[in-house]
Design goal:
Number of strands: 15
Low-confidence stretches: 1-9, 267-272
Organism: Jannaschia faecimaris
Shape: globular
GO molecular function: serine O-acetyltransferase activity
CATH class of the largest domain: Mainly Alpha
Number of helices: 10
Protein name: Serine acetyltransferase
CATH superfamily of the largest domain: serine acetyltransferase, domain 1
Family: Belongs to the transferase hexapeptide repeat family.
Structural class: alpha/beta
Largest sheet: 6 strands, mixed
Enzyme class: transferase
Number of domains: 2
Helix content: 40-55%
Mean pLDDT: 93
CATH architecture of the largest domain: Orthogonal Bundle
Distance between the termini: 65 Å
Length: 272
């Protein structure tokens, strides 16, 4: 564990708020006192809490918690962008998910958040050339959270995955900043290609539940993909697509759909 930095801690409003909420949670529900202490209050930095959660959750008979903690600590120290993104993801979840009323909840209870943070460490391993250990992390995330993110995928910051059940993100997929997606979303390929074969999702995109985005296509910034759609072609920025196969049905409806989370789509009938 790294030595705590009081200076960093003093200018980390996200972590400060989490610790305040954890103390209140322990007071309100004493049965959770041990959990809040081990998950939050025993740590000096969010980085330490992230490493603890990664190791504690992903450990198994095949891989000890101690080894995974060392991996996570090394990754977080080597690439500060991992923890920066984790903070942005907490704020994004709090602002966009009506079921989230505290910063504490994503860190302790939301599997979408925890899966994404673990996948960031898997991606670090992938980029370091430690491919087999990265695959192990991918496997454990899938087993534990029902979320399958290939360690080669590039995930931006400010990500909110609501419910997160049955999320699939392929190896060459790129997810931009401030993206929101709901459960059962697939960012996949269209066959057995072994090159750049997965979607590129722009910033500020909202992807509805059950949507399938397939192939090396571009989803423009601040666009909306309606629930249940199958997207096989590029989507222009600031538009809404819906259907199987998906087609443009209008403008995005707001400046950044991922933050508004408005999934209602008004489609005029052919008689209008």
């Amino acid at each position: 564990m790294r030595m705590p930095s009081k200076k960093l801690h003093s200018i980390d409003p996200v972590w400060d708020r989490i610790t305040v909420e954890a103390r209140q949670a322990a007071q309100d529900e004493p049965v959770l006192g041990g959990l809040t202490h081990s998950s939050v209050l025993q740590h000096d930095l969010l980085e330490d809490a992230l490493a603890y959660h990664f190791a504690q959750k992903l450990a198994s008979v095949e891989m000890s918690e101690q080894i995974l903690r060392e991996v996570a600590d090394t990754a977080l120290a080597d690439d500060p962008r991992i923890a920066t993104a984790a903070r942005a993801d907490i704020v994004a979840t709090y602002e966009r998910d009506p079921a989230c009323d505290r910063f504490l909840q994503p860190l302790m209870f939301f599997k979408g958040y925890r899966a994404v943070q673990a996948s960031r460490i898997g991606h670090w391993l992938w980029m370091e050339g430690r491919r087999d250990l990265a695959y192990f992390v991918q496997m454990r995330i899938s087993e534990l959270f029902g979320v399958d993110i290939h360690p080669g995928a590039q995930i931006g910051r400010g990500i909110m995955i609501d419910h997160a059940h049955s999320i699939v993100i392929g190896e060459t997929a790129v997810v931009g900043d401030n993206v929101s997606m709901l459960h059962s979303v697939t960012l996949g390929g269209t066959g057995k290609e072994d090159d750049d074969r997965h979607p590129k999702i722009g910033d500020g995109v909202l992807i509805g539940a059950g949507a399938k985005v397939l192939g090396n296509i571009k989803i423009g910034h601040c666009s909306r993909i309606a629930a249940g759609s199958v997207v096989l072609e590029d989507v222009p920025p600031k538009t809404t697509v819906a259907g199987v196969p998906a087609r443009i049905v209008g403008e995005a409806g707001c400046a950044q759909p991922s933050t508004m989370m408005d999934q209602l789509i008004g489609i005029r009938s052919s008689d209008d």
